[in-house]
């Protein structure tokens, strides 16, 4: 009835307002201290990173039980699934970033944050060396100059290692020098600025010039989900918005996606791969599969195309803007850490951990997310579940430690028996990690998305199309960690729906 609708509307608004109020007005935190209420000594946890793994761990950790310090060169959490929507201007970068301090304030126990990168770990002394890149801001100027970095060392009882991975260039000549990436917030804004720089430059050249054509060529290398989503977003942008402000640009500007394997989105159902290829064809997006990039210079991508009969052919693809999305590799700090632990000597693709994410060969370091090598893929979904699991494991471990402490410090046999019973129960519920795959989603352009959805062990559904696009949007809004980000993202989509994306290079 009408009354019920009005009532639920009001209740919904009240709930939303309360959530916003709670997020922006966190309560006073309990300060860090040497001892817990039980009298037991508090242990120090140092968390490295502020990405999916680290933040999910922090959110679920009972920070009254430990003294927690989070160290990351990035003072915000970045919601990577919507990063490919930033260069096209569909999403404002601020809408998908959430400050580490805002997140840390939601915990009951105080959490310290240090903006620094870990440079070395000593597993024997249980210390981590960290470095803050000290920059001097030149007044009235956007430029910064590096000063001598500030360095210090932190002691830990437990180190939660969640530094993620970096981009793999496979040492292909020219990638570092000429390509952009799509890994961090500033990568996305840099790609947008590059596109506009090339568009504006091309306007000064004659229509039939090869250089103009090259400047208007947008090339993405790597047909994994990052490359596919970015190419699709840029193609949408050209057709749906740029064409209104720069008439004819849709016929001049090209988007090319280069993939070494026979298929893009290889982790998706074959039907969805074919569907993606069809959508790309309709959109006029140049998809070059079986094409392995070998070299990149200032103006061209050099690749080898493998014909169906196995013969190869050299191809040259001119570009104005180039993005490399060739996948992940370990960070140098991770390689350095694994070289210090004998049990990690075979860890080529990531740190080796047990079912509780404890590093093989070390009792005090735990690793989660893209820096590990497990049976699970390097995704946000995995890092999020691992972080949450590890926090609960630490929460239980705190209880276990307290009960052991109380048992050893008590003289009353009844109390000891009671604590022993509780200890037995707590030990029983500490089960190893099991990943629950909920499916994979990707945006493929023209308001269409693909989804491989899984419900437990019994059902997998492969969907593609406009309804899937709405599902994709709903799922991502749900996944966004803070209420503030949810509101910003929805309003970005509304703004684009009403006014279209803007066509200036600023973010
Ligand atoms: P990250 O989230 O990368 O976090 C690593 C953190 O460590 C960062 O805060 C970094 O600043 C910090 N750090 C780096 N070096 C140091 C150091 N030396 N010391 C201290 N801290 C350090 N996955 C999905 O499941 N669904 C998606 O839709 C999806 N979309 C994606 C889109 C893009 C464009 C990209 C790039 C990835 C996407 N992913 C997606 C993958 C997902 O983002 C990663 O799997 C996930 O971020 C891994 O989490 P993590 O915590 O291991 O690392
Ligand atoms: P990826 O590893 O999934 O894909 C990289 C692609 O680049 C591969 O298909 C590879 O064949 C290709 N490639 C590598 N070298 C090449 C060369 N020389 N020439 C041509 N092609 C080359 O990397 P991506 O897309 O960055 O994803 C990284 C991780 O993040 C994955 O685990 C992915 O599942 C996850 N992710 C998930 C998303 C989603 O679910 N929507 C979105 C983005 C990332």
Write the layout of secondary structure elements.
Blueprint (H helix, E strand, L loop, with lengths): L1 H23 L18 E6 L3 H9 L5 E7 L3 E3 L18 E3 H6 L5 E5 L1 E6 L4 E6 L2 E3 L6 E3 L3 E6 L2 E4 L4 E2 L7 H4 L6 H18 L7 H6 L1 E5 L3 H21 L3 H4 L1 E5 L11 H14 L2 E3 L2 E6 L3 E7 L5 E7 L2 E4 L3 E2 L2 H7 L26 E3 L12 H30 L3 H16 L10 E7 L2 E8 L3 E7 H14 L3 H17 L8
Parallel strand pairs: 1-2, 1-11, 2-5, 11-21, 13-14, 13-19, 14-15
Antiparallel strand pairs: 3-4, 6-7, 7-10, 8-9, 12-20, 16-17, 17-18, 22-23, 23-24
This protein binds flavin-adenine dinucleotide and 1,4-dihydronicotinamide adenine dinucleotide.
Ends apart, CA distance between termini: 45 Å
Listed once per kind, the bound small molecules are: flavin-adenine dinucleotide, 1,4-dihydronicotinamide adenine dinucleotide
CATH topology of the largest domain: FAD/NAD(P)-binding domain
The CATH class designation of the largest domain is: Alpha Beta
Class by SSE composition: alpha/beta
Unreliable sequence segments: none
Number of helices, where a helix is a run of at least 4 consecutive DSSP H or I residues: 14
The fraction of residues in strands falls at 15-25%
Main sheet specs: 5 strands, parallel
Q: What is the number of E strands?
A: 24
| Number of self-contained structural domains | 2
Named CATH architecture of the largest domain: 3-Layer(bba) Sandwich
Helical residues, percent: 25-40%
Cα-based radius of gyration, to the nearest Å: 25 Å
Task: Give the overall silhouette.
Answer: globular
Roughly what is the average pLDDT, rounded to an integer?
93
Give the strand line-up of the largest sheet: 5-2-1-11-21
